[in-house]
Amino acid sequence: MPDRLSALDASFLYMEDPATPMHVGGVAVFERPREGFDYEEFLALVAQRLAYLPRYRQRVLRVPGNLARPVWVDDVDFDLNYHVRRSALPAPGHDEQLFDLVARLLSRPLDAERPLWEAYFVEGLRDDRVALITKTHQAVVDGVGTIELGQLILDTAPQDPEQVEDTWTARRQPGRTQLVLDAVSEAVQRPGEVVENVRSVARDASATMGKFADALGGVASALRVVARPSGPLNVPVSGGRVFSVVRTRLEDFRKVRAEHGGTVNDVVLAAITGALREWLLSRGAGPGPESTVRALVPLAVRDAESAEFSSASLVGNEVAAYLVDLPVGEPNPVLRLQHISHEMAAHLDSGRSVAARALLRVGGFAPATLHSLGARAAGSFSGRFFNLVVTNSPGPQVPLYAGRARMAEMFPVMPLVRNQALAIGVTSYHGGVYFGLNGDRKAAYDVDVLGRMIEDSLEELKGAQW
Q1: Cα–Cα distance measured from residue 312 to residue 50, given in angstroms and rounded to the nearest whole number
Q2: Class of the 3-152 domain?
Q3: Closest by alpha carbon to 325, among 270, 263, 260, 250?
Q4: Does domain 209-463 have CATH number 3.30.559.30?
Q5: pLDDT tens, 314-343?
Q6: Domain ranges of the chain
Q7: Is residue 55 within 8 Å of 422, Cβ to Cβ?
Q8: What is the pLDDT of residues 305-321, one digit of tens each?
Q9: Candidate ranges 96-100, 147-151, 301-305, 343-347; pick with highest mean pLDDT
Q10: CA–CA distance, 384 with 225 (Å, rounded to integer)
Q11: What residues form DSSP beta bridges with 132?
Q12: Angle, CA 430 vertex, CA 360 and CA 319 arms, to 5°
């Protein structure tokens, strides 16, 4: 039987257009060890681990006439050097130059004729650092059969590179006739699916109202969950991107939580809310007292029949998307936090939520995979129901290494969806909390300003008295 894409995976291909490529990215910065860490060593590391990710050597093959969903097939021309590329920054190698490169690379769609991922080994950063930029299509990472490459190449201790013999051999690709015969055979068993497949490529593969009712626990009606457009956040998206980051300390969020209650995730959302309020005011789109910005917040949940959150592969678990109204109209930072904590409590009370300490037991650098799953959860829903996406995944609080190079920091790069000019990813790692702000180059050209406002908003929460 053909390895056919799931309906959800296929929908990411159908929804993609040049302005909104459907891949998730990440940028990790490493300290180069004394003995060095170069492109060849990194290439060898990826080659060593690629055997655990067979999907990374497969491409998508469409069925003639769209009689069935596309299939995964081995790439008979697979070229690791094409997917793992070498780049360098010009002197002086400032972080801003790196993030400008991230924006340019992440704005380009992946090559549909090859496996849907790329990685860039970037040299030339100041202070003898190197960076790794990854981009992986949402159709690839499902968290069960395939995790994100960034999760697999990192270890809890330095590792010397190993030379491995690559015995992988590509299986022959099916021809057009075989693709059609397989589709017809399946159509005999499920005749309605042929019509559905043809329709899927011609329409936006958005989720139904029923999916939203499930995501919200059946609380809100379809009419109540439709989001109001919010100034510069909701405009047609261009093909250009800008990327900015924020570096904060986990201890600051824990102190605010201890003083005012809630969870660390609530405090993260409150800091973002305060920044969005000031950013909208600076844009002349000042929110009224009751104004909110609706965020789609993907969160890890346990399978209803599972007592524990599973380890490395996340098998039996899922990421559910929750709508959270961020009170940007509220001037008091503590009241903003309390409002968010109240909304998030409904999820915590469901009994399916996964505590941060459970996620930290997941093998490897799980946030890379969890952000990809969060993007999948967001991408499966219509953008009419939320104003922006905010993902937050806790990471390990111990150093991680790629080969012998220690990872200093990591920033997620969440994709933009149609008519939404901003996406925010947050990851904690080794005492830090790192924000990645991906914005449309025309509509959200000043995401660096928003980043500074997140820092100010956190300081406001730290100093707030109640």
Answers
A1: 16
A2: alpha beta
A3: 270
A4: yes
A5: 434 456 678 899 999 999 999 999 999 999
A6: 3-152, 209-463
A7: no
A8: 444 434 333 434 456 67
A9: 96-100
A10: 9
A11: 28, 121
A12: 35
